[in-house]
Amino acid sequence: MSLFNVFDISGSALSAQSVRLNTIASNLANAGVVGESAETAYRARYPVFSSVFDSALTTQQAAGVRVEGIVESEVPPRKEYSPSHPMADMEGYIYMSNVNSVEEMANMISASRSYQSSVEAMDTTKQLIMRTLSLGS
Amino acid sequence: MNVIDRLFGVSPQALSIRAHRFEVISANLANADTPGYKARDIEFGDALTWAQDERAQPLKSSIYHFDVGNSQYNLMYRLPHQSSLDGNTVETEQEHAAFMDNAIRYQASLNFLDGRIKSVLLALRGE
Question: How many domains does chain A contain in total?
């Protein structure tokens, strides 16, 4: 019964979106982290999604989604002059993380909406399967 | 076509196509954030005509072969109203609408089938 494949597909979306929410939580938590150099400063992380046309996960042409990898943002960390800071380098600069909090919040709303729509799809499918099972009773 | 198939009419095939359409739409929803993903859908009318076509069914060369559902429908790409820069053509609202539409039509087919089963049971029991 192909209705059950909806659970596989939507389930893959749920796990992908929760990875996305995890990276957002990590980015927001590290938004205020200060580094000693441009290399060690925290950089925002983003997951990259790709669709899986895998016969093991789904039948036929419908595809689930998986996290292909996590990339770090290329934006240079913000340099701030603060000689009294304990993490300041020889020239008195500290390096703030390149996380943009507003961007992360928008990203979070998008992720939670996608998560919700997959949950709703699964919920509707469950109701329909239950109705199909109780046919004729 | 056996007796049971004739009894239930087109509803079982309609249900199986609807179930497959659920799969396709939920895949679209799952890939709403995947770069380069193209949203797809099933043309229900074509799929039903195809499913009813005897020539499209697998050949049975032995009495031990039984009917298998045939669900190799043609998937069409959706034309986006406004595609995003990363090449993704999923429009979540449209997919939600399609999902709901499919759910209602699935339930309609279920109701027809349910009514048919109930009337057969009534005839069998003779109450």
Answer: 1
